[in-house]
Structures are given as structure tokens and as C-alpha cells.
Amino acid sequence: VKIRIDRKSPTPIYLQIAGSLRETILAGGLPAGRKLPPSRRLAGSLGVNRSTVVQAYDLLWSEGLLESRVGSGTVVRAPSTANDAELVEQEVRELGRVIGRSDVISLAGGLPSPDLYPLETLGRIASEVLSTGGGELLQWCEAAGYPPLRNLFAGQIPGVSPKEILVLPGSTQGLYLLSRALLEPGDAVVVESPTYLGALHVFGAAGARILGVPVDEQGMRIDMLDSLLGRARPKLIYTQPSYHNPSGFSLPLERRRALLDLACRHRVPVVEDDAYSRLVYEGEDLPSLKALDTHDHVIYLSTFTKTLCPGLRIGFLAAPAPVIERLAPEKYLIDLFTNTLAQAVIFEFLHRGHLEAHLARVREEYRRRRDVLSAALRESCPQLEFGVPGGGYFIWARLPRGVRARDLLREALGEGVSFMFGDVFYPDGRGQDRIRLSFPSQTPGNLEDGARRLGAALRRLAKKKRKGKTASDEEIALRPVL
Amino acid sequence: VKIRIDRKSPTPIYLQIAGSLRETILAGGLPAGRKLPPSRRLAGSLGVNRSTVVQAYDLLWSEGLLESRVGSGTVVRAPSTANDAELVEQEVRELGRVIGRSDVISLAGGLPSPDLYPLETLGRIASEVLSTGGGELLQWCEAAGYPPLRNLFAGQIPGVSPKEILVLPGSTQGLYLLSRALLEPGDAVVVESPTYLGALHVFGAAGARILGVPVDEQGMRIDMLDSLLGRARPKLIYTQPSYHNPSGFSLPLERRRALLDLACRHRVPVVEDDAYSRLVYEGEDLPSLKALDTHDHVIYLSTFTKTLCPGLRIGFLAAPAPVIERLAPEKYLIDLFTNTLAQAVIFEFLHRGHLEAHLARVREEYRRRRDVLSAALRESCPQLEFGVPGGGYFIWARLPRGVRARDLLREALGEGVSFMFGDVFYPDGRGQDRIRLSFPSQTPGNLEDGARRLGAALRRLAKKKRKGKTASDEEIALRPVL
Prior knowledge:
The structure is a homodimer. The first copy, chain A, is about 45% helix and about 15% strand. By secondary structure, chain A is of the alpha/beta class.
């Protein structure tokens, strides 16, 4: 690889190095899997500081062009197929089929617990709104949503008016509308790495370049954001500050403020996806980015999928009125308006205070399930490394060295337990040593059983490895099973 | 305008003429409103048959580049703004505000009658499915729809299997998904002229070239379709064969067969939008194109918006499985899946036979309202020319010579009645002498009042014209009122 450096150019040296490498990789001059020289060696041969090369590698890594492999350093990454919506939908559907098997305990899907759904209350409200709301309720509605519900949602966020609310059939449609309105193919989008799978699908389908910022136990590494925003000039930053999916971590107040400051400074809008903030098991409630936002810089997404149930398909988006006015016409083309029966049912459910009662109930139960799963994993799977999240749905665990998540899943399905393998949550194929375990939708007994089965799968895989049957021998068979 | 003809070229002469004119118009060489030479004169000066020039003019007319004006022959048409989804959504919203005024009798919106909605039955079913369906009902659902509902829909069309069904929140989403999957900007789409407003919006937003085929009392002029399909090579034909919106006409059996034959011969898929076929007031039920289709050539769209109510947001698409497999992943990005409460409610409503009972009731009532409005229009507005439709929602009337629909609407709003002006239903700005009157959502008393008010508006407008206050003096003021 030839890397040309022009010391007289106003372009920083690390950008010149990254530019040469990027060009070569995209032109096919460095195939997937090819090892790059260690940073120290390349720095020596170019006559630059080692940190300059590290910066260049970091940039290419965040663009998904490089990956780090244990034992083989930095290598060129194989192009991702995650952008292919068709493949992804198929994979999700097939996974759904497996996790739906009655003999498999699913820790895979991020779903609430159906046995806790307030069905009687919802049923009573549905029949009441139909008889009292009358025919007008099932008549036409404006694309932005049922006015009483827009008022109610606006009232939940300081400084937000009903004009700034768009009711949606789940927050997914918000991501889709934003990608249609704000993104052109090739535009950069910054996400946490790992991040929500559905966001990767939607941004990927829009042809965005998805740049990941690593997370630690306090969420997004804000210290890495400044230079990335300056270099990549992204069209938006997508973040889940509270009980992040899949990692479970939350951004502390200082990082929330720092994120907003950086976003304002670089004039990049922040899309805050807030599915889990109400599911807090200990510690304090933190203000949303939207509540902290004094510069109209945050587009806020909320959903009832995780707090109540997915099937009603209600969420909302809060953003400055000009954004709503850009999104509503596209929504009008997509589905005219959101189901008014569901909008009215959610309105009454909230208006009568049922959500708070329901949250109190599920918080207690989910906290218990989290504790049961954590304890059972410590007992049955001591090989796993994980933290206990203070809220949300997920335990995010690191596998023992050399164990790959997809190999483990095959063993686990044999034992009768499932989970999500980590790499689907990364924009760049990393995370093969990670698994996501979801605790809300299983009974405590099943969670204990699931952990035992997972432990057995881990032992079986280790045994096979010792016998020399490496996982990759069987890798080809995995796809149809999944 | 220079028109060059090369008699040795394999390109037919009329295409050469049309090509020269098209190029000149698009380059701005012929401004909007400029009169073209009469066909006989142009034919003489070019030394070709008059029919060759007529063919060229017809082609450009169907592309929306020309229009015919009474008294001034063929002129260049002003570019349409109908493709601008934002403008359109705003116009619809503003119109909605006006037609929602309690002092205005709306004959504008194509909505069913809320006082006939089976609210009690729907409410009872909603609370029942929630209590018997249990939590699983509100859990995740696959993108293609709730399986029992897919089975039921498949059973309604001969030869269609559940795999060939995609459940949607209204048929609008079907048009959107098809435009995303099948259309690139610049692709041609053939529609009836006039046609459903929403289809013009969706195809326009996709950047399609929308080519209109005129309709007569028997629906689409199939005799004009053959050469158009050959010339324009469209990606799809969009049609409403039964009780067409806005014209009310239905395609007889022979034309249905001829349409399918042509579509197969030219290998163009047919999108059949069937919102009104169950609302038949006299005459026989005709088979849908989908039922006649033996070559998997028809993509069928159905909705409950017109037969039941808009607010539940349920429709479906039936198409060969490979089409479904292309659309489902895009739907997954847009909203994951359609509201399962609404899907289950519709399923039970159909399964228990309530739809047939409801249809019997609304058919009788809507027939009565159609008859009341027709009779009242004949009495109060003898200037209008219209046919009485055998089903559906609309009376499609031609205004007296020289009266423009938008001018009449301003007068009509002053009198307290509204309707839809005709040009919004045309891909090319024609229809300014047409209005659409919707009868299902008003009581017979209101229909009679509405007709009287419309008669008064017609008289007032005629009086103003006689006084020399022409409509165009006030035209600029119309937009904000609308």
C-alpha cells in the first residue's frame, strides 16, 4: 500500500493517511481479512508520530472499514450485509420461528411479558371509547395524530407544544420518516456501537454511512465524539441515553450535557430514542436529552412497546414544528394517519392514570426477573462477564475468550435456550464475543432453567473445541437453522 | 418550433414529431399557455397525414405536456405541482378544516357515514379478543400480518394462498410499498384519467411520469391502452375497475378481460385498487381482475375504509409470493407490523359474518342517499350534467360551459356547501370543469339542503360573470381560503 503524505497540505496528516487507506480498501486493493502493519511500524516508516497512525486507524475503524482481531491486530473488514433489508427481515423472521418453538426458552427477543398485560383494562377502555367517542372516533384523523393524544404527549415534556408532536405506530416509523427526510445515500450517521438493531436497519436501508462511537459502563464515549463530529460531519446522532439496548447502560447527567453541547457546537441534530427510561429498577430518574435541550436540537422518540405492549403500535416523535411539518406529509403518503382506536385507547389509558399503576407493577416484576437471571448466570455460567443494569430489558454479557456467539447459539438451541448474538448490534461486524439476554418475558423459573441450559451449552462448546472440532467447521450450517 | 422528420429512420413519424415538441417544451422553448398549430395546419406544413399529428399530440397530452382548451385549441400545459407531497398534504389539511366547519355541508370527503358504524359490535369484539386472545395478541406479529387474518383474506379470492397476502394499515401503504419496490424516478405509470387522488400523490412523490388514459361511461378506454403501453413501457397500470373514484363508472366484463390481455401481452403488472366493489346498488357483481387473472399478473389492493370505517386502518394486498417477499421487508422498516388489536377485531368481525350484515345495511342507506342527491341536483342544479353511478360513493358532474370548479367552490363555501374540484384527480391539470360530490356521509336532509346551496352558488357565480366580474379576478384569493 502506498501512502502519500504532503506536509505542506492544510489537511491533517492522519486524514491523509486515512484517505489513502480508505481509497485503497474501497478500490479492492486491500481485501477483507488483510492485516495492516502495526501502528508503531507504519508510523516509523512514514516518519510520523504513532498517535497519528492510531488516529487514522480509529477513523477507518469507526467507518466500519477496519476491525481489530485478537491475535492478529488490525485487519480489513468484510463488507457488511446488514444494509440489506430483505436479508435482515428474513433473518429476524427465521429467528422468530426458532425462538417461538415451545421447547426453547427465549432470552432473545426484546419483548415485554404478555402475562402482565392489563388486558381487562384495555378491553374495557376499547369498548368504552367506541361507545362514547362515537363514529367520529373511527372517522378520518389528521396525519400528525389524534389531537387529545398530541396534547397529552406534549404535556409530558417541559417546553413542548402539541404542534411539536407526531403520533406514530411505534418509534420505528419515526426513524423511517427521519431517514427519508434527512438522509441521502452516503450521508454519515453517528450511533452508539453497539446500538439498536432496528436503527441500523433503517439507516442502512437509507444508504447512510453508519459511524459507531464505543460505549463504556457510562454509555456513549463522549470524549471520542468531538473529533468524529468534526471529521465526519454527520447528518444526525442517534442515541439511547437510558438503559441502552443492548448494553443496558445509561448516560450520566454530565455526559448528557456534554453530548448536547457537542451536538450544538457542531450543529448536528440528536435523535433520542427513549424506549426504556421509565423502566428504572434502582437509582434516580435522569432527565431526557429533550428535557435538557434549550436549543431545539433534540428529536425525541418514545414508544409504548416496551412499557406496555408492542401490538397496539403507538409511539410518538417530539421535535421543533418545522421538523414535524416535514415529516407529516411523508407519513400521509405511508399510511394517511395512525389507527385512531389505538390512539384513543392509549389516550384513555394514560389519562386515567393506568400507565403509572402498570409501570409500578412491571418495574417490580422485571427487577425480580433481572435479579433471578443475574444470580442464575453467576451460578450456571461463571464463564460469562456482565454487569447488572439499573433498568431496561437486557443483560449484555461477554463470552470467554475464543467462544463466538453464533457458535454458542447453535449449541444453546440444542439445549433449548436462545439469545441474540452480539454482532447484529454493531455497525461494523464486531461483537462476536457478546450476547444479549432479555429477562422481562420469561418467568423466574424459566430464567433459571435458561441459565442452566446456557451453562450446558457453554460446556459442550468448550468440550468440542478441546476435541478439535472447531466451530467454523459447522458454520455454514448455521444460517438455515437460524 | 422546428420539427425535423427523418423519413428513413425506423422511429415512427408521430414519435419523431412528439419527440421534437417534447424537447422544446421541456427546454422552455414553448411556455405554458402557448397555442400549438391546429393538427391540420401542422400536418400540411410537415407533409404528413393529419392523423400522424393527432397521434403525436395525443401522446404529449397523455404525458401531461399539453391540454385542450375550449376555444383556443391545444396549448402547452403549466407544470403541475401535484407531485409535491408537502403542498398536497397541506391542501388536504386545509380543505379538511373547511369541510369540517359545522355550517358547511360537506359533499367533499370520500368518507363513510359515522352514524352507521357498528360501534357496539366493534367494542364488544375488541374487549372479547383482548380477554380471549390473551397477551399473545398484543405481542409481536410478523410483518406480513396476523396469520388467521391472512388465511381469511386469502379465502376470499379464488386461487390465492395466505402466503400471497400482506396485511396493511389501509391500501395507501400498499401503493407506497409498491412505489418503493417497483418505481425509480422517471419511470412511467399508467392511470385512469381521472383517478384516485392518493395514487397520484404516492406515484408523484416517487418521481414517476404519470400517464393518463381517459375514461368513458364504461371506465378506462382500453382501446387507447395498447399503443400507450407499447410507446411508454410503463412499470405498472393502476386501475379501479369497480365504481371508480371519482367517476363512479365500472369496467364491464369484456373490458376487464381486454385489460388483462393487454397487460399480459406487454408484461406490465396491473395494480387493482378495489375499495368500492362491495358497495353495489344495482346490477350484477363483476369478478375482480384478480379473480380473472390466470397469469399472476394482478396486484390486488383492498381496504375497509369505505365499507366499514377509516379509523381501524386495515387493508390488504394480494400478489404472487415473490412480490410479497419484496414488500414485507420494506414494511418491516416502516412500522414493523400492523396493529394487532385492529387485525384481530377485523378478523372476528368478518369471521362472525358481521361485515355482510353491515354491508346490507349501508348499501340500502347509501343507495337511498344517492337517489336523494341525484333527484335534488336535478331539481336545484339543472345546469349540471351527470350520470347516476350503480355503486360506490360519488356523483361526478360536469359544470356548465365557462364555469370553473375552483371558482364555484368559493361561491359554494359562502353558501355553506363543499365538494372536491375535479382537477386534483387528473395527472395533467384537466378537469377544471368537473366536480365530485360524495353522498354517503350526509343525511338525506343535508343532501337536499346541499344541492339547494350548490344551486344558489351556481346562480350567484353566473350573475357575477354577467356583471363582468370574471372568476380569474379573484383567483389569487382562493388558495388561502381552501
